[in-house]
Amino acid sequence: MTTAPDHHTDIEQDLTQRLAELARAFIADLSARGHLTHTPHRHQATPPPTPHEPSPVETDVNTAEALTPLPEQPGPQLTPHAQTRPPQTLADLHALHPDPPQTLSDLLAAHLTANGAQHTPNDPPDRIPTPTDPPDNRQGVTALLAPQHVLVGTDRTPVSIPTPSPMLRGAITLPRTTHRTPRWARTTTPSEAHSPDEAGSPDGAPSDTHTPDGALAAHTTGPDPDRVQHTAATATQLQTNHAHRLELAHITPHHDHVTIHINAATLNDWEYWLTAINALDTPTHRIGTTQTTTGHINDTPIHLTAHHVPQLLDQATQNAKDPYYHHGRIYDLTHPHTDRHGQTWHYTGQRQSDNTPLLALPGTNHPPYPLTTITTTNGPLTPTHRPPDDANA
Length: 393
Known about the structure:
Elements: H1 10-33, H2 56-64, H3 90-96, H4 104-114, E1 141-142, E2 150-151, H5 225-242, E3 248-253, E4 258-263, H6 267-276, E5 285-287, E6 290-297, E7 300-307, H7 309-319, E8 323-326, E9 329-332, E10 337-338, E11 344-351, E12 357-360, E13 369-370, H8 371-378, E14 382-383, H9 388-392
C-alpha cells in the first residue's frame, strides 16, 4: 500500500517545522550582519547572480543540505538525540558539519537519516552511474518519503531513467535490469538441436564427420561395385534373350535393379514379359495408361512398365464369357487352360468362399484346386483356345 501524495505524514510535518525555524534563524542572522537588501518592486528586474558569485539564499540553502556525511566519511552523525534544538545561526550549521553543503537533496537526506529513513531524489542525476563508480548511500529506489514504503535496491545497471507519470506517482517501482536467458533455458526447435558429436574436436572445431541430416559421412557410401556389376550382367542377359521382341522399348540397368519398358500391342506381349521376369504370381498395378509389376532374375529386381495394357485388359474382360481377373491376367473360364507341364485344367463350375474358381484335371482322381494355387505351382496357365483377336495377333 502506498501513501497518497497529498497526505502529510509526521515526518513531513516535522520537516516543514524545522525548515521554517531554519529560515527564521537565517533571516535573523542576516539582519544581525546587515546583509538584508531592499526587495525590488514587481516591475523591476532582478539581475541574476553571476556564476562566480552565488546569491546568499542559494549559498545558505546549499550549506544546509549537507548536514549528514556519507557513510564512508568519518564525522558526527545527526540523530534526534544529538540535535536537541534546531540551529539558530550559520555558525551553528557550520559546527554541525564543517564541509560546505551541495544540494537541497542533501538536506532532505540528512533529515530523513536522522529520523531512521532513507531518501533518493526524484530528479534525474547529472549523469547515469556506471558499474565502476564507488558505492555510496544513494543506491536503491524509494517511493515517497514514508519509511514504511522504502524499497532499497542494489542494481546499478546503466539504464535510462524515465520521468514518472502523475498517475503512477506513489507506486513502488523496481529497478530495471538487463537479463539474458541462459542457453540451457532456451527453447529450441528440432532443427536447432544438435547431436552430442557435433561439438567436434577437443579444440572446438566442428567435426567434419557429420552430414547436414545428422548421419555419419563414413556411413554414406556409394553403391556396392559388385552389386552394380551383377545388375549390369542381368540387364545384358535380358537384352540378349529378348532383343527380338518388337514391343521392347528399352532395358536400363541401375545400381540395384533393372527397368524394362514395353509398348504392348496385345495381351500376349504383356503375358510374355510377365513370364520372362518370373512375375507369375505377383500383383500388378494400374497407373494411368500403364500396368506395372516387379519380378526377379538372379536375385535382381526387375521393374516392368507396360504401356496400353489397361485398355487391353478392359477389352478382354468385355469379350470373355466368364472372365476372372488375377494378377494382371484375364482367364475366360469357359475355355480349358494348360499349365507349363502340359496338363489341361477345366473349370468345375464351383468357387471358394472368396470367389476363387476351382479347376480339376479330367480323368484323374485328384480333387479340384483353386486357380490361384495352380498358377503359383504350375503356372503360367494359357487358354487352350485363344480368343480370335489374340490368335490373329
